[in-house]
Structure formats: structure tokens, C-alpha cells
Amino acid sequence: MVEYAFIGVEGNHDQAFIGKVLKLLGLHDFREQQRGLRENLDPFWSKLVPSYPTKKGELYKRLPMPSILYNRNLSVAIYGGEGSNLKTKVDAILSNERTYQTDLSSFVIIADADKQGINEVIKPYVDCFRQYFPNFPEQAGEIKKRDQTYTGIYVLPNNSSQGTLDQLLCQCGEVAYSEFISRGKAYLETFTEDERKEMKWKPFDYEKALIATVVSVLKPGKTNTASINDNKWVSDQTKEVVHDLKQLIEFLADALKIEI
């Protein structure tokens, strides 16, 4: 019997990163293994397939088709909720489809703490999702297992520091691509504080720029998402060395009932 798990993340990079983690845990990518064809999609996830164009007729709006990963016993949907809209988007999915309230084996939220402290990040999710899952936890990194559906919330980069996925990627890059990271830092140091102010850099934009610089070498002309999927940011090598990555992998394995 197949169990179904839902993971809500904020953006495309988070979606690719968590997908790569799940592949490291032995799951297969529906898009790679079954060409991502609708006829091959497990019917349980059919309600998540977006309709094009949007109800407002927005022809250029990118629609959030979740990543689907699976093995013999488990099917996981990773849904990208368009940044700060994640809570609202997932709330709409749950309220419109009762099956996702009752038949999920796991429900997990992966957020980040780029603008607020950890507790401020978590509170809106707790207030919203406890109407569907009364056991939804109120501590970052916690997994509740008392009811049928395991529930958990993880705040990037590590449940304690303020930041984003890019800080975790930088840690992985220090292991997998140390020379490129070093050269990237040297390049970014050529920009003065006045230039960074003129370009209106925000907190954590340095880490975003560093990752983008290395990606432009590893995958010229490609996106960070493509590099996360194809390169070695998440790998057997980095999971052994990068503590924050190991912690995230263990959290997901526990929340999804995967033995490691």
C-alpha cells in the first residue's frame, strides 16, 4: 500500500533542493523516470495539476506544478508556494480537497527565516494548519507522530539561525566546490560597500550572489535550480560533512518514515 506525503516549500530553489535530498534518500523523480506525463501521474495528486492559463487569464504566469518523487511504498509531492504566499496557497489546496486533509501519511512545511525570527516564521503556519492537523507542531524541527498524519515544520537554514537556503548551499559549496567558492568570494569582494548599497543588496543577497556566481561556471546559461539538480551541492560527500544538511536529511527521513 502506497502512502502519500505533502511537503510545502517557499520557492523553486527550495523545491529542487528538497527533491535532490529525497533522491539521496532513494526516491525516484517522476519527471525523470516517467517523463512527467499526466497519463503516468498517480491519480492521488491529480488535484495539484495546475490549469493553464490561470482563472484570471494570466498567460505569462508560471504555474506551480509540484515535484513528485516516489518509491514502492511512498509518493511525495513537493509544492512550491511562491514565497510568502506558501501558507495561503497550501491552505487553499487543503480546504478545496478533503482527501488531502484525511489521507496524507505526512504533512511537512519547509520555510526560511530571511526576514523574521524563527518563532515569528512558524506562528502563521501553526495558526492556519492546526484546523486541518491539530497536532501540527509549534517548534522548528519538531515532528508530531501522535495522529495518523505525521506533521512537521523545518525553518532553513538550520532551525536556529536567521537565513535562507542559500546559506546551506554555501556550506555545501565549501565542500563540493571549494576552489570555485573561494574564487567567487574573491570576485564579490571587488564590489565596494557603496556599490552594494547602490544595487540595493538586502540581507543574504551576498550568499545568493555567491551561489549564482559558482552556478554560472558549473552550468553556464542555466538556473540555480538546474545546478541543484545536476551538480553535487547535495551529495553523499556533502551529507557526511555539512552538519546542517545532515540535520535536514534526518528530519525529512523521520517525517516521511524513511529508514536511513
The quaternary state of the protein chains shown equals: single chain
Q: Which secondary-structure class do the elements indicate?
A: alpha/beta
Strand content: 5-15%
Number of helices: 12
Number of DSSP E strands:
7
Low-confidence stretches: none
The 3D shape can be described as: globular
**Reading side by side through the largest sheet, how are the strands ordered?**
2-3-4-1-5-7-6
Q: What's the N-to-C terminus distance?
A: 20 Å
Briefly summarize what is shown.
With about 260 residues, the protein is of the alpha/beta class.
Task: Walk me through this protein's architecture.
The chain is an alpha/beta fold and 260 residues long. 43% of the residues lie in helices and 14% in strands. It contains twelve helices and seven strands. The protein has helices at 12-24, 30-33, 86-96, 99-102, 118-129, 165-176, 178-188, 193-198, 205-218, 224-230, 236-241, 243-255; strands at 3-9, 28-29, 67-70, 74-80, 106-112, 143-144, 150-156. A seven-stranded mixed β-sheet has the order 2-3-4-1-5-7-6, with helices on both faces. Strand 3 and strand 4 form a beta hairpin. Helix 1 (12-24) packs parallel to helix 10 (224-230), helix 6 packs across helix 7 (178-188) and helix 6 (165-176) packs across helix 9. The longest helix is centred in the last third of the chain and has 14 residues, at 205-218. The protein is globular, with a radius of gyration of 19 Å. It starts with a strand and ends in a 5-residue tail after the last helix. The model has no long low-confidence stretch (mean pLDDT 95).
